[in-house]
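Reading a protein record of the kind used here takes little practice once its layout is understood. Each number in the token line that follows is a code from a learned vocabulary of backbone shapes. One such record is shown here in full, so that the layout can be seen directly:
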Amino acid sequence: MSAHNPMPRSAWIFPALAVLLFAAVSATGYVFTLSLGGLVFAIVLLVILFGTVFAAVHHAEVIAERVGEPYGTLVLTLSVTIIEVALITTIMLGDKPAPELARDTVFAVVMIVCNGLVGLCIFIGGLRYREQGFQLSGANVYLSVLFALATITLIMPNYTTTTPGPVYSAVQLGFVDVVTLALYAVFLYTQTVLHKDYFVHERAEGEGGEAHPSAGALALTVGLLLVSLLAVVLLAKKFSLVVDAVAARIGAPPAFAGLLVALLILMPEGVSAIAAARKNDLQKSINLALGSSLATIGLTIPAVGIATYAFDKELELGLSAQGSVLLLLTFFLSMLTFGTGRTNVLFGLVHMVVFAVYVFMVFVP
């Protein structure tokens, strides 16, 4: 069947507006300032940027539905990660040094996804269906790789002796980039080739399949996805100026920028995960959530590491003692939550409480 729902207008309008906005700003040489005109520009920029991110995720979801699981969530996850790398790299390489941004954003993604998003999905699913099931073997694969990558990139830099923490030396960072990419590549091979069945749970009874788009519609969707991703990359620099100005005006803590970037890039993916939980497809929610965490560490850290090395920038990776405690708590809690293959409301609530503690500690450390 090639029948499919018509493409929403926002799926092509926002990418077009993003490209036009970038062209207009570049042609006029506009410089953002904290003024009435700057406020209007910031609002327009954020609306278009959010809309373009949602458009990119919509196109990724259409492609994902066509290729099926587990490839589908992989397409969506990689698309979001490209946006994340573009935003982080652009802000870090800006005029104002931000060596801790990559660490703060990656940590924020892990906390938002593994506590906020996972908790909300489990809580909503528990309220609606009492219990929900998922593939225990798949969750274990996700968690084992996630724990290893997070420890190597976010905790280990505090305990090296070649250079004072929380940074890796150039050689150490190069080695970590290589092993991180290698581990993530083997995970992808496991997910898509060796053990695809680990990441696909039986659909809820009565839930039918989606109609697939035609070949022409699919080609258009792929093109618009590429345009959307390019538009986000082009506007990332302008977004970084707004973030810096707002953070300076309100006196926000250093981790605020990382939290804001993480919320921006995860919002549309979070909507997809919550919608899947409401449809009693917790497996898809887990694939999206834990897959985002893995892609964030497995791809963002190496990409940012290469960029900082090429442009001679400093990269701080080690978490504070407080952040390390929250990360370890998340590890232990995740092991319990995903240890039986069944979830309920209480598991979700505990994760959301830990997320609330994280957000509170960002502003009141």
In short: The first helix runs from residue 10 to 28. Confidence is low (pLDDT under 50) at residues 204-209.
